[in-house]
Amino acid sequence: MNSFPWLTLLLIIPAAAAVVVAAVPRRLGTLAKQVTLAVTLVEFVLALLATIAYEPAKAGFQFSQKYSWIKQFGISYSVGADGISLVLILLATLLVPIVVLASWDEVDAASPDGAPVAGRRSVPAFFALLLALEAGMVGVFAATDVFLFYVFFEAMLIPMYFLIGSYGPVKEQAQRSYAAVKFLLYSLFGGLLMLAAVIGLYVVSSDQLGTGTFDFATLRQLDITPGVQKLLFLGFFIAFAIKAPLFPFHTWLPDAGAQSPTGGAILLVGVLDKVGTFGLIRYCIPLFPDASSYFAPVVLALAVIGIFYGALLAIGQRDMKRLVAYTSLAHFGFIAMGTFALTSQAGTGAVLYMVNHGLSTGLLFLVVGFLVARRGSRDVGAYRGMAQVTPVLAGVFLIAGLSSLALPGLNSFVSEFLVLAGTFTRYRALAIVATAGIVLAAIYILYLYQRTMTGPVVSEDARGVLDLSVREKIVVAPVVALIIALGIYPKPLIDIVRPTVTATFEDAGHTDPTPTAPVNASQAGGHS
Amino acid sequence: MPHEVGHEVGYAAASGVFSATWLLLVLPLAGALILLLGGRRTDRWGHLLGTAASAASFVVGLVLFFGLRGRAADDRQVAQHLFSWISVNGFQVDAGLLFDQLSAVFVLLITGVGTLIHIYSIGYMAHDPGRRRFFAYMNLFLASMLLLVLGDNFLVLYAGWELVGLSSFLLIKFWEYKPAAATAANKAFYMNRVGDVGLALAIMLMFATVGSTNYDSVLGAAAADVIGYGTLTAIALLLLLGACGKSGQFPLQAWLPDAMEGPTPISALIHAATMVTAGVYLIARASPIFTETQAARTVVVIIGAVTIIIGCVIGCAYDDIKKVLAYSTVSQIGYMFLAVGLGPAGYALGIAHLLAHGFFKAGLFLGSGSVIHAMDDEQDMRKYGGLWRLMPVTWATFGLGYLAIIGLPPLSGFFTKDKIIEAAFDKGGTSGYLLGLTALLGAGITAFYMTRLFLLTFHGERRWSSSGEHAKHPHESPRVMTGPMALLAVGSVFAGGLFIVGGTLQDWLAPVFGEGHEEGAHTLSPAVVTALTLLVAAGGFAGAYLRYQLRPVEAVGRPDSEVGLVTVAARHDLYANTFNETVFMRPGQYLTRFLVWLDTVGVDGLVRGTAAGIGGLSGRLRRTQTGFVRSYALSMLGGAVLVVMTALLVRTG
Known about the structure:
- The complex is a heterodimer of chains A (528) and B (653).
- With 528 residues, chain A is mainly alpha-helical.
- Chain A is 71% helix and 3% strand.
- Chain A has a domain at 288-512.
- In chain B, strands 1-2-3 form a 3-stranded mixed beta sheet.
């Protein structure tokens, strides 16, 4: 099955569908929704089949395809999947149909206070943007040509920009434009630094090999001098640190998170930002192993600062969407820490974290979106005692929150503990400090829950708020199920991710520290 | 279906009846899931299903217990491997269960007392619209607690540990429309998480040191002396931090009294009989580690001793019946900590007191629930009085629990507490005397405040009226409630003797804790210790009798300005909350506010300023699409310059 063009299909289907849906007349909004939902479901099934066809034990990229694109510069259309990119593609294709169904009424619905907004916003365009975004996300993870990666990296910005700028909160015209532009400028700035580094790589390759190339596998083999590595590393790293984002490159995120429509926020924080953390482990570490070791202390410091900084700021927020955005800053800190601890446990944990964070934060944004759709406000003050009125919504909210605070038995615990334990074996003090962050995670989640869900109901009219509809239950059910299933039995995911991460670190010359007083091998369990 | 493969060298593989070990967990878990997912459809029979699930788990526990007894004494550790949980190269953690002598007694306590409390709750929660949800959470708690005591490695224990915290959180905030309940639930979770940090770090340190988190590997390495003393002590102290959080021990005791906001059966189940003893279980389970580190054990006994006194002093000051019982729990667990901190001499004694306490404290809480129920949710003991005629069964069962806790021979508490005091003296030296005298003093104060509680509630004048606006009509509780109370009273009477006399429990647990302890040199002869203990307790009783039976009691306590400094301090939980608020909460709030300000003004401003320096973007950020095009062009230009520069640098570098 490995000759089957899985990735190209996954790329073409949403891209083509985006064009088709964009061409649907405005008045046929429902048709646009139905087509989008069908396409994204097919896309997810396809990604699932690809995951089944993937052979984790085999080294290197699978489902590879390569066609020359711009010969003069050695640029090619080149795609392939490894364990890391595959699970992220799976996450992206899972979340898109959920977002589609969650956004079903968001664009054409009257705003909560009854003012009609239809007519100003095109329903087909919204769903076409989602499809275009999906194509971009698949492309950025599947690309194995660094230039192609850059192209997708930038291309993703465009649909996201319009999702925020045109489909954010109706009444906050100025704020959403500001957020959209801020998002775009930050990303463009990082993208340009990366472009410079990409070109730098090309120059190095042409010096060493005679002909320049952007092929990732070839670039990996280059022997770059440490000084140049540091420069190029910074180009990539800053781009990724803005995208992920890491402290102090994060200030665009709360604005963008708050001003995105629910679906946009889910894809932005759940998947798009993962391109940054994905880039750290896919590009920074293999391409610049010496620079990675050199800068590791700095990255780790930023990561741990982010864990606390994001958590404290989340505690201080009243805008629920901003709050969730800040929790993500803390989570990205964990991911970056896991990546740059340079052990296979922490690295595997970091990649799992990317997936799990997509699920938990996705669910948090969904629930917050449901609340906002009901009461028209993102401010915690508009809510109190909602658990009495909407018990199912409150229950789902709590599950999402517990996943976010990494309760054992739920998905995030596995990744967070792997990150911490893997970091601990190399950087004890750092891991100790980071572990203290789990107390803050409990506070930002449960304090939010307390303010919105418990106590007497906020007002008489809030008593009339409806609990989750059937559509909304269908939207959250698969995410809730996965959050629980991947907490109890994460093995299928770990088995895909572990070999790639292990190889990545080994190739870059990093081996796991050995226990200081190991018990004999028969007791320590089978090493593989 | 689980594999029947013993994966550990040291443990026998689960076969025969032991292949059903997993059912212990899954029965209550299934109950919880059915009740939570089934929604209102299960309202009518939800409580029955929940109780049945708990009872079924108890039956399985009994079968396994007798199965274990039927095996040779050196072959009573049966492991069941379920599946590989987290496996990344050197980090291998399985979902595995261990049914041994220690987990067996905990399983029986948890499911046995748990089932009685389920039955009681059928009556207690009969008129609560959320009764089904209540039973779902109780089942979830049982499953979590069983996971905690059945796991065969520290990470599975940790999972149970945090899930127990979740169940406790859900049950404390069961009446979450009350802000106090929601606040108490959050406080409990936060403080528990502080302890959990310790446990998590201990596990990481085990992994970094031994390369495993399995009991047999870690504990085996500790016993074999291959781990350095410093590391071993660090692991032990981190475990202790976790234990203090879950068991409400100093300095993490402040959440437990607040947790009384939950329904009373929960106070009995979680905050008296089972969950709060998890810290004692953890230390007992990790006994090979603690045995090897005198330094850590010293800290354990100090914490135990300090907590005994804290609980006793505050217990004397409160008028809320549940708060007094809560602080009494804090103090009794202090005895258990003291015991297990004594090392091989005390592990089994700590467990014996834990089990006996499970009976009498659960009985006391259920009795208090019966009273609270009868008095229309009034919890102030000063508004009780003379209830014994109206509630004879509650009076009798509560009375037996009360006599057990103050250590009247030959009831449970007498045997178990007496032995701990004796062992404390036997530690020898000055420290032995200090600990022994502290424990002795605690016994006296316990007798005082428990007598006070008993007299205020059941005897003396009626400080309530059966007519008027706040009319009360106390009545005995229904049989579904008094039945469990009676059974627990039976346990309160006999359990202690059963465990201690002839060393039954000590022998049973010996393979877990090692035979190390030699009966030998006593600092004080057992008879003297017993006599002293009884004397001190009698003194406490007499004090309370004189003050609260022979003299009239005001229905309203005197204000702070008219009582002594110690009483004021005790009424304010010895300022533990004030301390936490001043040292952690307020500065935390200020820091948060400062950071929120900093992030919008400082970091954002700084980055925008830098951007302005590089590309002149700042002003355009405020504009919309038109400005954006120009900014884009500008940043393109900036980028192009960067590209050229990089290319040059790469060439020359």
